[in-house]
Structures are given as structure tokens and as C-alpha cells.
Amino acid sequence: MALTDPIADMLTRIRNAVRNSAPRVDCRNSKVCKGIAHVMKDEGYIADYAVIDDGRQGILRVDLRYSSRGEATIHSLQRNSKPGRRVYAKVSDLPRPLAGLGIVIVSTPVGVLSDRQARKQHVGGELLCTVE
Fold first, then answer.
1. How far is C-alpha 20 from the geometric centre of its chain's CA atoms?
2. Where is 128: in which H helix or E strand?
3. Model confidence over 39-94: pLDDT tens digits?
4. Is the separation of the CB atoms in 38 and 46 below 8 Å?
5. Which of 34, 78, 100, 129 is exposed most, by the fewest CB atoms within 10 A?
């Protein structure tokens, strides 16, 4: 079975795992998905991630993060750019979700970055997803 949008698949798996209060979720591995997981870890939305070799493409295991009261750190996870409609933004037009409390993950020529890192490095790119 061919997967047309691995980023949307990863975000949906994370969204479903957070809704079920699962401790971890397994996704398909790709460079972009690994970059998204790295940004989410750096920004504190997930606890950790690891790439597990399965002899094929690999599995990206994401350990989710919850507060001491059991509340998830991820409240909303939305895909901005889709295969049928790509969304690009210059560095001056990067959105600030929740007035800076959320992040937008951006695919830039430098790599996959959060909106804060993209502003700091003064690069724009494709808006992959919004995490709040």
C-alpha cells in the first residue's frame, strides 16, 4: 500500500495517541518526519524519539510527553501544507500561533526548523504543520 502523505500520517498517529493517552507511538521513518520529531523534542512537545531499524524504511518511535497531572503537552496538531496545496511563507510572513506560545514547523533550505529558529536564521520555506 502506497502512502501519499507520510507527514499527515505521522501527525494523525500522534494526535490519536495523545487522545488515547498512549505513552508512545510508532510512525514510518523519513527525513522530514525525523526533522519534525527533532523540532518537537527541542521545543518540549515530545519527550524523545528514536529510529528503529526494521530492515526496510525504519520505524520512528515517538515518546509522548504529559504533565504530572496527566495532561498532554500537545493540544492541537494541524497540517498546513498538503500535497495538493503547498503553503510557503517568507520569513516576514511566518505565523505566530497562540501569540508565540505554539510553533509552526517549517521546511527550509537549511532543514526542518521551528518558526523561531527560521526567524533567527532569517529563512522562509514550506509551512508543514502547526503545534499548539
1. 19
2. strand 125-131
3. 999 999 999 999 999 999 999 999 999 999 999 999 999 999 999 999 999 999 99
4. no
5. 100
Kindly report the pTM of this predicted structure.
0.95
Q: Are 2 and 41 in contact (CB under 8 A)?
A: no
Q: Which three cell numbers stand for residue 43?
A: 521545543
Q: Are 26 and 33 in contact (CB under 8 A)?
A: no
Q: 504530572: which residue's cell?
A: 68
Nearest in space to 28 (alpha carbons), one of 40, 41, 42, 14: 14
> To 10 degrees, what angle do helices 31-42 and 6-19 make?
40
In the block, which residue shows the cell 510557503?
Answer: 88
Grid cell listed for 114? 521551528
